[in-house]
């Protein structure tokens, strides 16, 4: 196996690298080609429509693209409205209680539709389906649901739909992580013509005390680098300009493979011609290495944008969360990133009201915002998840205090975000034009390298182009800009 001067695997050496790996890996032992399975898929969906309601993270969004691809191979076409569909599927999230409550409410509204149309097929999948308590509730109170399957066997959807055509009983097909692996060459109906998601890693081994994901998504499994790069090459050939590498913890990529890590994979991806931007999410501060920082800094295709979840600014709270780092260690990482990538844009995730969080510890989180000066933050009130270790801690922060802290935190971050954006007024930025604005057909939506949204006016032919814009106005969550003459970069 050969490596270049920086210690990275050469893209042309991928097949040889696989041959040089003597120990079979988990991913290699359990790798399945969907095209072999798909030979048995019929066209039961001819003349029928489907609708998928998606809740949760980008992983769920991408799973929906995959399931849409499988359904359309069966002959289904997308329905404009959910209640007009012949097959309705809820792709669910279990991270917070309110996400689950929405699903239960929506499932309840389908009962009369099922009564009027017994041929309607209703399905539930995603993280909620991995929970036994959810499956039991389906059995007892929602028998109108026809199929239930989890996060580890999305690829069996066509066979489940086929079974549902011949069964009046709810079909449960939920796999344990122990039987899991990676499935390659899955069909996809991508929702975007410019940007695309690429799964590189599944599951999480971190077991933060508040988080349900390791229980619903299973242990970490990495796709082989050959498969990832081949998918990126195909996307480039189809004209995609930006890809986002997806995983519950992307910087653990390669933990179950020999001789390759996430920095290596980024290096390989940056060598694919035609891709202008390579983003990734989500990363964990615990193992964000200097090698990874250097790789981001070295390649112009990798934007100066990092989403770096902190969750709390208090070392005591972080310890109870089992995050694996202290406030000081997190700030040291931020310092190293900013030193190597001076114009980096950072965003984060924060939970307020975690069990035992005092007012003083909350103030440490506020001060962390002010010290790091994030471009934005996704903030949440702590939501107990059944089966997680945090539920054994006394939930001693009142709901009123949780809401007040969330409001105060958002007020501080909104001010910082606006100040950061105002610094860009008058500057010329390189943006990728993504699509028409959802709220105004005369406005185009573009995005900067640092992931800031920019509203511009221009011809629809600019969509998919990298152009220069001058920022004319700053808001808290977006910018306005004008397209410069000869702004399209050739």
TrEMBL record:
GO terms for molecular function: 4 iron, 4 sulfur cluster binding; metal ion binding; tRNA-2-methylthio-N(6)-dimethylallyladenosine(37) synthase activity. PROSITE patterns: MTTASE_N (PS51449), MTTASE_RADICAL (PS01278), RADICAL_SAM (PS51918), TRAM (PS50926). Residues 422-485 form the TRAM domain. Residues 190-419 form the Radical SAM core domain. InterPro entries: Elp3/MiaA/NifB-like_rSAM, Methylthiotransferase, Methylthiotransferase_CS, Methylthiotransferase_N, Methylthiotransferase_N_sf, MiaB_methiolase, rSAM, rSAM_horseshoe. Keywords: 4Fe-4S, Cytoplasm, Iron, Iron-sulfur, Metal-binding, S-adenosyl-L-methionine, Transferase, tRNA processing. Residues 48-166 form the MTTase N-terminal domain. One of its GO terms (cellular component) is cytosol. Its cofactor is [4Fe-4S] cluster. Catalyzes the methylthiolation of N6-(dimethylallyl)adenosine (i(6)A), leading to the formation of 2-methylthio-N6-(dimethylallyl)adenosine (ms(2)i(6)A) at position 37 in tRNAs that read codons beginning with uridine. PANTHER family: CDK5 REGULATORY SUBUNIT-ASSOCIATED PROTEIN 1, MITOCHONDRIAL TRNA METHYLTHIOTRANSFERASE CDK5RAP1. This is tRNA-2-methylthio-N(6)-dimethylallyladenosine synthase.
